[in-house]
Amino acid sequence: MILGLLLTYVPALLLCWHIVRTGRDTFWLWIVLMAPGIGSIAYIALNIVPEIFGGATAQKVSRAARETLDPHREYREAKAACDDTPTVRNQSRLAAAAAQMGRHAEAEALFRAAAQGVHADDPVLLLGLANALLELRRPADALAVLERLGKDEAHGRTPAAALSLGRAYEDLGRIAEADTALQWASERMPGFEALARYAAFMARNGRQTEAREVVTELDKRLAKLRGPFRKEALTWRDHAAQALR
């Protein structure tokens, strides 16, 4: 019994030392101390292994898993950075984190504050601002922002921007223009969001058969997907399916 306790708590204490030494979020101290077995494994897998092996895939998996365990972490860190140094980069990071948490009014204010002066035409800031306005049900304002983007991908008219443009057009009743923009985005954006939004658009506009075909395609893709990205993909698949009910 004593040996079992030593094997459980000694590694946990060493990991606590590592957490403090490397300046990790104190959230991890609670995880490791409250659940020394699974908590220690989670900390090693999400913090130490990616450092050893590196690589973009390992970092993405680690980031997704950390967001699952502590979904507010990025917002806290971004806010601390912005409070300390309110640069455009830090404002943009905090705005994105606020939007991820559904705090769209805050995101709008931050993106608007960042898109000033030499950054007034920054396509990333403008797209973030437009998306916040869309979530706040202000499609006319969002469209005005999106129309400031260029006419090609080199100047900000990316598939992501086209997706937002299609959403604004639909909300304003400009269905033909929405169809063109959403289809263009769905054919070019990776992931599930663009295709799911286009399927939902078709379902809302009397094209249920086409929408069902897209949902079937999403189901096929989802069946092949594993890992931390499956949850987000499933959310978008359900978004499309909900519009058919």
Structural class: mainly alpha
For this structure, the quaternary state is single chain
Rg: 22 Å
First and last CA, distance:
57 Å
User: Helical content, roughly?
Assistant: over 70%
The ordered string of helix (H) and strand (E) elements is HHHHHHHHHHHHHH
Which word captures the global form?
flat
**Mean pLDDT figure:** 84
The proportion of residues in beta strands is under 5%
Q: Using DSSP, what is the number of strands?
A: 0
Query: What are the segments in which pLDDT stays under 50 over at least 5 consecutive residues?
Result: none
Specify the number of helices.
Answer: 14
Largest sheet: none
Which short descriptors sum up this protein?
245 residues, mainly alpha, 75% helix, flat
Helix-strand layout with pairing:
Layout: H1 2-21, H2 27-34, H3 36-53, H4 56-69, H5 73-84, H6 88-100, H7 104-114, H8 123-135, H9 139-146, H10 159-171, H11 175-186, H12 193-204, H13 208-223, H14 230-242
